[in-house]
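Notes from the 1:1 (GR / supervisor)

We went over the backlog. Supervisor wanted to see one worked example end to end before approving the batch request, so GR pasted a single chain during the call. The sequence is below; no edits were made to it. Supervisor asked that the structure be written out right there so they could see what the output format looks like.
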Amino acid sequence: MTRVPAPFLALAAMVSVQLGAAIAKTRFDEVGSVGAATLRLVIGAVVLALVVRPRVRHWTRAQWTGAVALGVALAGMNLCIYVAFASIPIGVAVTIEFLGPLALSLVHTRRWRDALWAALALVGVVLLGVGPSAVTSVSGVVFAVLAAGCWAGYIVMNRHVGRAIPGVDGLAVSMLVAMVVALPFGLGEAVRGVGDHPSLLLVFTAVAVLSSVLPYALEMLALRRMPTRVFGVLQSLGPAIAALAGLVVLAEGLSVLEVGALACVTAASVGVTRSARRRRA
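Structure output shown during the call:
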């Protein structure tokens, strides 16, 4: 892995996440969107816990509170975005979801240049609002917006947990919390789906690895050898990669308006990331 360029590792992590999401959507008819999200969280949490084996014996109340809050945000993000996937294209859902971290980056800024990036993102929102996906499935858009809010919360809590708990023990516990939160919503669908189609366990093991375990490992390796600002710019390609995965795996095409919205949100994210780099400098 040391010979592989770090940007390639970061891109591979994003491709892995969106490929996992697209594969999961192919089995929604058998297990349902919430059941699919639950299976992914359960398998991912168990795998990560077995690998990490978090040491929690001496954790403080503040550390537990942070890990639980992160787990709740993680569960909400996964459940909501999978429900959105069920009724709108993956590329559209991820573009809307991406507004969460983008809004978080813009919320404390007072620079006129950042206001222009916010305006560009708003143009993307308007284009999505008048696009065919929003017209045909308002509920899908609503759940994608909820996922965006959960993603923003996940970022805030992930920073907190990263500072409060060394290593990846906090993430492993948060994944277990997310699993527990998801079980009341998706356990029934998951059990029925696996009972009727046992092969789903293999499918969602692959989904959990593609969407959770592998991306985390690749991102960790990438961040060791590349500046965080470059990593942030590459992350802005997420909506485009999601749209490509939806097209290749699910034959989900996007309208001209939706492609325009994706381009606006991606450009705004790149601009905000580069602007933040200048402020820190």
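Supervisor's comment: The mean pLDDT is 86.
Batch request approved.
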